[in-house]
What we know:
By secondary structure, the protein is mainly alpha-helical. It has 29 helices and two strands.
Amino acid sequence: MSLKKLSDKLILLVGAVLTLFQIYTAATMPFPGMQQRSIHLGLGLALVFLVKSKAKKPEYQNLVLLLGIILAVVSLAVCFNVTWQWLDMAEPMRLTFPETEDFVFGTTLILLVLFGTRKVTGVAMPLIAIFFLAYAYFGKYVPIAMFRHPGVRFSQLISMGYMGTEGIFSSILGVSTNQVFIFLLFGQLLDSLGGGAFFLDLANSGFGRVRGGPAKVSIFGSALFGSISGSAVANVVATGTITIPLMQEVGYTPVFAGAVSAVASTGGLIMPPVMGAAAFIMADILGIPYWDVCKAAAIPAILYYLALYLCVDFRAASLNMHGLPENEIPKFKDVIKKSGFIYITPLVLLVYVLGVLQYPADKACFYCCCLLIVLSLTKKELRKVLAEDWLTILVKTARSSMTVIMACSCAGLILLALQTSGLILKLANILVALAGGRLWLLLILVMLCSIIMGMGLPASACYIILAILGAPAIVSLGVPPVAAHLFVLFFGSMSAITPPVAMAAFAAAPIARASSARIGYAAWWMGLPAFLIAFCMVFQPALVMIGSLWEIGLAVFFCVAGVFCMTVGLQGYFLSRVSVLRRVIWIVAGAMLIAPETISSVIGLVIGVFLYFVEKTLSKKAVAA
């Protein structure tokens, strides 16, 4: 047997075992946390080294495959050592004075985690981890007094990083083990059984016939599908291949079509009920149920998609567009009748079990997976998919989890270094001092950090780092923790559409056959209202469901009006073309409406109403002429 065939068979074996193990633990929870996390990481690391063993030159391929297999075996051995000895490792004497084998295994696992993280997330996150680990160890040599500390012994880094739950096997990896993986399985099941196509048909039946229909189908299809996939790039690839050509067909430019797909796909990371992996990590860090994160994100997510909807609607009106031909639009009743109960019922159950029954997220999702499988058995073609593709579904789920597993384990090393060195306690004060105690300036600093880190990291990895480094500083100035963490999550996600490295735009470019740079800048321009909404969450906690119904309702009203005004200004069209001066005034009115002060919002509303009648009058004159 060739090394390539052996590697492929091992990928199938390890991927299937990892997913089956996660299904078993979701159903029964038979393992203590340390054991479960070590098995989860061991299988995840092995899968990373097997999947990512690709040589740049063909003549080195066999050598790289062999190295990948060796690293996979070593990963399993090192992690399963923890599974076997975790009780002995928890002994205080052994934690204080690690044995020789602990040094060897611990150092090996740290190196494997750093190397594996580089393979799936790029070089940025492991470099950050190495920097902070070096800082923890060489702390007494740091030249700047405020950052200097006595230094952490190597034995302490090993004992806490490898043998305890403060490092690699921290609660952050526990989130990947207990919650994120089962949601990835749900998403993969839904997609493999036709859920993605169903949601696109559902969006098409509702919005295909209105002006600019394909763009609106892209928005709602991406919102629904992105809430399943949890990845902006995966969302673009899955929905954009259908919606981008349709948008171009009705008259949108390739750049605009690609930008709409990129922005819509990115919003899926913040759209409840199934948000990206970062939302589960946020719930763990804040110590609140996942459902509370969903509730807090609901209004900002709706405002995000409202801004995008208005954007494509105004552009369609300016180009005098129409919807798709009637014969290309499926009937809503037919879409629901055909398979709606199979795909919608599990999502309804998920919302009910999470929101009403208050079940843990992993249990709720496990029941939804079971329901989806049972309902799928009622249709012959879906029974065939389950019978023929069950192994593919298991392996695809495992492969989709690699980024989250590695990001969470590497984040544990960063958290370990920050805690043992005491830097985590200093950083909040340092950031607040840099901002001079001014919240708006601190938010800008954290925003810039989020966007910069997001250029080289997945959204979940970016959120984890900023949740550790930046969010505590925002909270220290009196901001509700959930608002501070959502702010970080928003900008970590928005990095997917922020030039120069806009990954969602890169994914859309080959489909739209347009420049990725131009798509990136167009997407950033469309997403500007979302940037302001993120700031507004901090200054108006009512937007994250903190406050009375009156306060929440008033904040939503002003923000909806503000998003409308800003979109008119950014797009330059409302009933008719808007002059440059009026566009500026529209944008100012929108910013004032979104601003937290009631007086400012009222003034912005007055300006917006005045501009509305001005535009209406000018439009009538243009028609009469």
